[in-house]
Write a structure and sequence with these properties.
Mean pLDDT is 76; it is low at 1-20 and 179-212. The protein has eight helices and two strands, in the order H-E-H-H-H-H-H-E-H-H. It has one domain. The protein has helices spanning 2-22, 30-35, 38-75, 81-106, 111-119, 121-137, 162-168, 192-199; strands spanning 25-28, 142-145. A two-stranded parallel sheet has the order 1-2. The termini are far apart. By secondary structure, the chain is mainly alpha-helical.
Length: 217
């Protein structure tokens, strides 16, 4: 049985080798392309601002709940049972509101996903449309994204179409939309969305970003 499988695999490999040899391949660095487009950088800044404001909103509510709990713990031994129950229900209600707001802001299909689609996806769609257009024009069978992909161990520069994509979109290759001095050491951002984006710098921008949640109560 094993011998038959080996024979089949050998015949299959010899059969597909001529076809594979005729295919044209290319690679693109979508991280580099997107960072070179000012519209994307501006959209990312706007998204970061939304995330920062929402995170502050949640942190304020956490502080309010902690203050209510601390006040209750200090006064509970003086309160009659009916007031104890009322204060406990108020704290529980605030916690439920916090969880609902947290889900609304950062849950699946929530405000973050909607804003990301509104602000970043249009630019990303333009890039992917340009990649598809160039691939069809140059008859590439496959185009690999080398933006931090562990599957791409080596990519010859002559097969990198990143600059072609930028030129087709009307941007100058090699020009980054990052501000001057971007290579200087920076303080670690406190914004959880930006912090995760910095940690995932090698991955495709604007995708799967998820801010750190406030601690659960």
């Amino acid at each position: 049985m094993k011998t038959r499988i080996l024979i089949f695999l050998s015949v299959f490999c010899f059969a597909v080798m001529p076809v594979a040899a005729q295919q044209k391949f290319a690679c693109v660095n979508t991280d580099y392309v997107l960072r070179s487009i000012p519209d994307y950088a501006n959209a990312q800044k706007r998204l970061d601002k939304y995330v920062s404001d929402w995170q502050k909103e949640l942190e304020d509510k956490v502080s309010e709940i902690e203050a209510l709990r601390a006040e209750y713990e200090q006064e509970s031994y003086l309160l009659p049972d009916n007031l104890k129950k009322r204060r406990q229900e108020e704290i529980k209600s605030r916690e439920q509101e916090l969880r609902a707001l947290q889900q609304q802001r950062f849950g699946a299909g929530g405000d973050l996903d909607k804003k990301r689609a509104e602000l970043l996806k249009p630019v990303q769609d333009r890039v992917y449309a340009a990649i598809e257009r160039i691939s069809q024009e140059k008859n590439y069978a496959f185009v690999f994204d080398k933006a931090g992909s562990p599957a791409v161990l080596f990519a010859n520069k002559k097969f990198d179409i990143s600059d072609d994509v930028l030129q087709s979109l009307g941007y100058k290759p090699g020009a980054s939309s990052e501000p001057a001095g971007a290579d200087e050491p920076k303080k670690k951002p406190t914004n959880p969305e930006m912090r995760k984006r910095d940690n995932d710098r090698g991955s495709r921008p604007g995708k799967d970003m998820e801010p750190m949640r406030p601690k659960k109560l």
